[in-house]
User: Fold this.
Amino acid sequence: MVAHLEFVHVTKHFGAVDVVATPFDLAIDDKQFVVFLGPSGCGKTTLMRMVGGLDTPSTGEIRLRGKAVGGPDRRRGMVFQSYSSFPWLTVEQNVSFGMRYRDDLSEEEKLARRDHYLDLVGLQEFSNAYPNQVSGGMRQRIAIARTLACGSDVLLMDEPFGALDALRREQLQTELRRIQRRDAKTVVFVTHDVEEAVFLADRVVVFSPRPARIMADIDVRARLGEERTLEMRDGADFFALRNEVLHLVRTYAGSAA
Ligand SMILES: Nc1ncnc2c1ncn2[C@@H]1O[C@H](COP(=O)(O)OP(=O)(O)O)[C@@H](O)[C@H]1O
Ligand SMILES: [Mg+2]
Assistant:
């Protein structure tokens, strides 16, 4: 079986700075929710940018369904740390922008999807505002809604929930996991939050400090199953696994994580 997304002997350096020094190999299955967990500055964003076709490996290659990644591709949706939104488009236009290639959807379906995701991220009443008229956290939610609305089969999310308050964050985590199961998406999600990683993931990959190396690869799904709910978050299994992963992070990734 061809992996959905595959890193094949990838290395990356910027001048003399090695971000990924040892060849990096990782195969991500179709519909797998993988979380990259690692200390700040270890190279997570660089890896994600390469998956997104925004940067290229120094050696090796990244393959999407067996084909080397070239430039950006609409089948991959990304939410970056910068949570970029288009300042000249309103909030709702920003969300619709994510669906511009969806020829399979009627105008009504696009509007319904737009409203669904605006509602999900709590921005319905700001539909007609411009990004510079809303808070940073709201701009982040615009980018999340746009990415989810576009419905690409690979979601690349780089610390997307960082600036959100705890409740909104928990709500979006639960919803993201639900969407991923329902729409059968492959997700690569970056965070330095252990609890978020364990709650969301089928699989957590723990990184070393720069240059990024894989220190642990944890099969969360085997331990917690597929369904994730707020109730299980208070349960003993979740707590035990969270502690194990926290311990791994302390051991391998240093206190920065
Ligand atoms: N364009 C670039 N030029 C030079 N160094 C870079 C560039 N992008 C990232 N780096 C360096 O690569 C390292 C990893 O960065 P990054 O991938 O952003 O880490 P993370 O997302 O894990 O915090 C950092 O030391 C950063 O300074
Ligand atoms: Mg980063």
